[in-house]
Amino acid sequence: MNTKKYFTVALAAFQLVSFGTMAQKTKNKKPNVLIIFTDDHRFSGIHELAGMDVKTPNLDALVKDGVAFNNAYLMGAFTGATCVASRAMLLTGRNVFELDGIGHDVPATHTTFGEAFQKQGYNTEVIGKWHQDGETLKRSFTSGEKIMGRGLYLVDHFRMPFYDWDKAGKFSPQDAYWLVYDENGKVVRQDIPKNAVRGPIGTEKNGPHTSEVIGEAAVDYFKNYKSKNPFLMYLAFHAPHDPRQAPQAYRDMYPVDQMKLTPSYMLQHPFDNGHMFLRDEELAAWPRTPDVSKQQLSDYYAIITHLDAQIGKVIAGLKASGQYENTLIVMSGDSGLAVGNHGLMGKQNIYDEDGVHVPLIFAGNLIKTKGVRNDAFAYNFDIFPTICDFAKIPIPSSVTGKSLMPILNNEAKEVRNSTYHAYRQFQRAYRKGYYKLIEYVRAKDYDKKEGESIAGSRVTQLFNFKTDPWETQDLSFFPKNKALIEQMRKEMKEQAVLLGDKKENVSGEKYDFWDFY
Questions:
Q1: DSSP E strands, 112-176
Q2: Spatial distance between the Cα atoms of 140 and 458, rounded to a whole number of angstroms
Q3: Entry's PANTHER family (predicted)?
């Protein structure tokens, strides 16, 4: 594949698509909102944000087309499937301790952004990945397409079960289908065989990739949109979540022997962080040799670049429909991902790039400030109140996140001066200014098969992001930092109380970090 030609064409499609005769008058009209949400997409997974070797020309263009937050975060999770909590926070605008349990179910008292915008006359559309309950899906959106993640999952981007929109919200397994190529190369629907094998065994010869399916559904929505009402679209891609599959042309862009490992690459994590052995960490052999980590990073970058191409098509389709002029575009990811950083592969931690640091971009014609990089702290559950403020829609009383509009309007430099992070009963972190304190404990754990056990280590880490953004040098043992650590510990405990960090606030949680600290 001619990569130079690919990027020239991709950027041309992104930047030069004509608005055509369908361009709308935006004066006094409520804005459309497009929320692009990617899966396991760390902050440094966009070239323009961190300068890494991943190729993302279309996402780079979004960064230049608006305001990007350098310090946007997932607060944490009480399950290894951190995307469950992350998406529940995004949907409800509430922090991780205010969800119902780990975030699978969303109570009717927690208004979702779909409900809030529906009440103001919006058509709300969901496309792609869904991790919450069916009732919440039904009440949050007026329509949907290519729903995935409703109980039937084959761990394969090329053989993904999808569902048509079901107004009743049932999404029964027998209604799922996948998309395959027929003998003429045409995409057709096919019932999923009962004996379908799980695992990443598909290729681009079988059928279209999830990113292609989800992106094309968005383009079709824009093309066929006839309503006079504004729309809110929740476009939830499954990529770059594993299995890290991409068409061969994109894999060829990243020769394994030419991959550069990140500054935080390690053969093995230096201690037990409480959740070292789970599905994500089983994706690669121990120790994480340079060859192992380079292969994983190559696959990760390939699926991101393929995703980027589909996002480029989505933006081009939005422009071609005439809707771009009046659409706020929000792009974010649900979590970071280690892929070799600190000797880890997954996101079950609260290091920045490995677990909680995510891209957050507000872009499009309606964002008048272009190419701005903002250092203010933000969480992904701040997106909900921000889009409400932007669209001049009342923020529901159940929302506890903070609107970022004062920052976008240059009226304030920040809406919070610190961040707090939690992973299960094993890890807590507190970030203020350039410093981040991470505390680990050795605690009890429970597994249905294994019963009760003990895991984790009592460890303290201190990092300075001004000099060490990849968290490679632990400063906690230097005597000169003793007073700083004590002050940060004090403030972290105060934040825990303010946020409600106790097991009683996480229904079903057996253990409390603070009982072991």
A1: 123-129, 143-148
A2: 42
A3: ARYLSULFATASE FAMILY MEMBER, ARYLSULFATASE G
357-358 vs 327-333, strand pairing mode: unpaired
Question: Which CA distances in Å does 206 have to 89, 162, 180, 182, 331?
Answer: 35, 15, 6, 9, 30
The domains of the chain are located at 32-416, 422-515
364 contact partners, CB below 8 Å, separation of at least 6: 34, 65, 66, 324, 327, 328, 329
| 217-226 mean pLDDT | 97
- Nearest CA among 210, 187, 63, 188 for reference residue 127: 210
Give the least confident one: 67-71, 108-112, 172-176, 335-339. Answer: 172-176
Give the fold, CATH level 3, of 422-515.
Answer: Arylsulfatase, C-terminal domain (3.30.1120)
The CA–CA distances, whole Å, from 450 to 106, 304, 431, 510 equal: 30, 37, 35, 15
The CATH class of the 32-416 domain is alpha beta
Q: Is the fold of 32-416 the same as that of 422-515?
A: no
Q: What is the pLDDT of residues 137-169, one digit of tens each?
A: 999 999 999 999 888 889 999 999 999 998 887
Residues 6 or more apart whose Cβ sits within 8 Å of residue 234: 35, 37, 113, 114, 124, 125, 126, 127, 141
pLDDT digits (tens, 9 = 90+) for 37-47: 999 999 999 99
**pLDDT value of residue 126:** 98
